[in-house]
Amino acid sequence: MAAKRQRMIKIRKLDKNIPKMATQVCETMLKDLEKARRPVLSAVKCSLDNSEYDAKKGYLVPKGKKVHSELNVSSVQKISRAIFLLEILLNNLKGGLINTKRELYYICKGLIKSDTLYKPLDFDSQNESDSTIDFITDMLEVYREEMNCFANDRGGQTYSKNLIVTETLPDNTKAVVDLSTLGTTPFQPKNKPQQFQLKKKGRIDFCLVVESEGTANTLVANGMTKRHNCIIMGAQGVPSNAVRGWCQTIQNQLKVPIFFYGDLDAYTLQNIYRTLKAGSAASLIRNADFSAPEVRFLGLLPEDVEKHDLHCYEVSIKDASEMRSIKKARDVLKNDPFFQDKKNKKLAQILKWLIKEKKRCEQQSVFSIDPKNPKVLEEFIVHKIKTKSYY
Amino acid sequence: MQFHFIKKVCPIKKLSKITTSSTAEYFAKNLQQVGFSSPVKAVLTTLKEAMDNSLDACEEANILPEITVEIKRAKSAIHSDSKTSKKKISPTEEKEESESMAAQLPGKNTELVEISVEDNGPGLKVEDLPKVFGEYLASSKFGKGRCSRGQQGIGISAATTWAQLTNASGVEVISKTKDMKKAIKVTVDVDIKRNRGIIKKKENIKWNKPHGLSALFRIVGRIQLKGDGGLITYLEGTALVNPHLTLHYKLADKEWRHIEKVSKEPPVIPPATLPHPHTMKLGEFISHAHLFDKVALSVFLKKGFSKISKKTLDDFVKNSLPPVLLKKKVQSFTDVEYKKIFQIIQKTKMANPTTRSVLTVGEEALSHSIQRIGEVDFFSVITRKPRICDHKPVVVETAIARLLEKALDSENAIIRLMRFANRVPLQFDKSACAITKAVESVNWKAYGLAQQKNSLPLGPYVFAVSVTSPFIKFKNASKETIDASEELVEEIRRTLMQTGQKLARHIKREKKADDLERKTQYIRQFVPILVKKLGDITKASDKRMEKAKKGIMTLLGQDTKEAQEALKTAETRLRDLHSKALITTNLEKTTTVKKEKVASFSKHQKRIEKTQTYRKKRVGKNGS
Question: Measured between alpha carbons, how far is B340 from B419 in angstroms, rounded to an integer?
Answer without folding.
Answer: 41
